[in-house]
Please model this.
Amino acid sequence: ELAESFGVSQASICRAIARWTPRIVEVLAELVPTADDLDQTQTLIVDGTLVPCWDWNHQPGLYSGKHHRTGLNLQVACTLTGRLVWVSDPAPGSTHDAKAIQSTGFLDIFPDTPPLGDKGYTGLGMMTPIRKPPGGGLTDWQKQYNKIVNSLRVPVERAIAHLKTWRILHAGYR
Model:
C-alpha cells in the first residue's frame, strides 16, 4: 500500500525503512522509559504473554509447550489502574515466565513493593496466589486471599489484551 501511495516499488520502500529505522530508534531512545525510570513506591502487576511468530524449524527455543506454537515471551507490567508502564525485551517462547522476568532484572528494582503476579512467579518474592498443597486443599482464608490477588491482576490481563490488538503483535510477522 505504501509503495502504491508514493508510486515507487516495494523494494524502494523496504530500503527506505531499513535505512531510516535505526536513525529513528537512535533519536527516540532517550524518550523510551526503562524499568529504572519507574516509580519504585507504586504497586505493579506483572504477567507474561506469548507473541506469535512464524514457525522456525531451526529455532526450537521459540516453541512454547504451554501454548503449542512458536512465539516470543514478553513480560508486561502495569499499574493497579491498568496503565501500561513496562514491556520487556522478547525472550524465546520456550522461556518460563519466572525465568524471563528474572533475566530482565526487573524485580531487583522493587525491593520494598513487590509486584503482583500469577502462580507462575511463585518463589520470586512477588505477591502471588497460594498454591494448593499436594494431596490437600486450601483453607477458607487462603481461598479468599487468592480471590483478592486474582481480582487485582485483571488490569494486566486487560493491558496485554490491548497490546495484542496492535496488528504487529497479533500477527506472525516478527
